[in-house]
Design brief:
This protein is an alpha/beta fold. About 40% of the residues lie in helices and about 15% in strands.
């Protein structure tokens, strides 16, 4: 439940910027007294480099010491339990069965890293799993991937009182993670958990595939589809790039806030917003 001071403050504001419709839904349920017309969806923005600023896949793989002939499922994120890298590793045996040249490459670090390495060894896929550690050059390594995966778990601590989370999984995932639009900007097709803002960022069947949280079989199926069909993966990646430019760039974010401010002050919004 919201504290009384927060509740009173919210009733005095003219607009609440929500980084996804999932977040707006949360506020609708957690604070039903709010005037819903004051909830504005304004997706996070990320820097979208020009397409020519990225290295070629071959150059990116060579810099990381990855085999040129591999089919790479990649992910980026802190290695903590809620980020869901565990389910990518659990899906890897089935992925390799369908695509023998598949590799899972993970960039990031954190307290869960030893557990993930132990799990890969236990499942017999340690040789198919590459840990890159913490990286400061993510745009330079993304082209090494063929497919990008982001499969966080449901976060039950964000559950409004009286709501059973499985009835509304959109509320349980990340609000609007930066990893997905950054990967889309690099022209990568996406596999993501169907929760939180992910289902809004990824257009299922157009820019990638969505899977239920912790659904190892669905993650494996989506990965096999994309890794074994490079033409389809490239088409989805290009569609994702176009969507990142139009919807999730810093320029798009600026236009949305410009429109919001104009509206709040009663100005006529500019024609291009």
């Amino acid at each position: 439940p919201l504290g009384s001071l927060v509740a009173r403050a919210l009733q005095r504001v003219d607009a609440i910027a929500c980084v996804s419709a999932a977040v707006a839904s949360y506020w609708t349920l957690a604070a039903p007294y709010l005037d819903q017309s004051r909830l504005w969806v304004t997706y996070n923005g990320v820097r979208v480099p020009p397409a020519e600023a990225y290295p070629t896949p071959a150059a990116a793989r060579a810099a990381l010491g990855l085999p040129a002939e591999a089919r790479i499922l990649g992910t980026v994120g802190r290695m903590v339990r809620g980020k869901g890298q565990e389910f990518l590793i659990r899906a890897l045996p089935d992925i390799v069965a369908g695509v023998p040249e598949a590799l899972l490459v993970m960039a990031g670090s954190g307290p869960y890293e030893p557990t993930l390495k132990e799990l890969a060894a236990t499942l017999g896929v340690a040789d198919k799993t590459h840990f890159l550690g913490w990286r400061e050059d993510i745009p330079q390594i993304l082209p090494a991937f063929d497919v990008f995966a982001h499969t966080p778990t449901l976060e039950t601590h964000r559950q409004p009182r009286g709501l059973h989370l499985p009835d509304c999984p959109a509320l349980g995932g990340e609000a609007c993670g930066r990893a997905l639009p950054e990967a889309m900007a690099a022209s990568l097709p996406i596999i993501a958990t169907d929760s939180g803002g992910n289902a809004e960022l990824v257009l299922a069947g157009e820019t990638g595939y969505l899977a239920g949280a912790e659904d190892v079989a669905a993650i494996a199926e989506a990965a096999v589809k994309l890794l074994s069909r490079p033409d389809q993966a490239r088409r989805m990646g290009q569609a994702g790039r176009e969507r990142a430019v139009a919807e999730f760039s810093l320029e798009a974010l600026g236009l949305r806030y410009h429109y919001l401010i104009q509206t709040l002050f009663g100005a006529q919004p500019a024609p291009n917003t």
